[in-house]
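Its record is retained below.
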Amino acid sequence: MAQKTSKIREFQKRFPDEDTCLDHLMRTRFGERLKCFKCQKDARYYRVKARRSFECEHCGYQVYPTAGTPFEKTRTGLRDWFYVMFLFCATRNGVAAKEVERQLGVTYKTAWRMCNLIRKYMGYVDGDFPLGGHGKTVEADETFIGGRDLNGAPDDKAIVFGIIERGGDVVTRHVVARTKRHLIPHIVKIVKPGSKINTDEASNFKLLKERYGFDHEMVDHSAKEYVRGDVHTNSIESFWSQVKRGINGTYIWVSKKHLQTYLHEFEYRHNLRRQPALMFDLLLQAFPKVQVE
């Protein structure tokens, strides 16, 4: 039986050095040729030695492929950035900044900044597309993330709200409260009309049918009802389990200030779970394209 090629070896073969990474970034954002920003001629751009830039073959005008990307104004090597992006796509539970610090030999501050920017970039690439539609079911639920205070009350926990299409994508939001004013607008904005919505018994969701006309069904968790026919919230609760395993096991603790970026990371991996080979390639191809009018 033939041995499968190691993914890390595939990465090393594809991006063996800094120049390969910069060339990839240049081609992805500008193409093989482009209309020069200065002389306006159709030109091929050639690499400038000792700089992260390319210059026009006609007038020498220089462009920087890293501008407008997470790698802008960084002294860390592009190959290190690409490698950390690869790690984020190769794991289920996230990558701790301490692990990046150890593997790259950078400071913890640099490692944390790299991880934070990559999470933001994953959110940009994933986006928030409408969920559901006629004949489809979505589930909505909120959960708490964080520790308890000395009295055992959850008032110091972060509140996270999620909407998931069964068998499809998930969208999450870090919200400040569990009231209908903070939850319902997200559902109305994200869920397509005609969708069937399943939630728990919280009264906050009653407006979905009364005011917005959704086909809304609830399961009463307080009465230990978790499934009634095809009415349940198991999909979104399974996603919450994955998020909490990642945060508790890998990150240990996440501040409320940066929680949404961590949620972007878990959303990205969930939404591409059926096409894991695309996770890294999408990050490599989704840099903002640059065009010259």
User: Anything to note?
Assistant: The two ends are 54 Å apart (CA to CA).
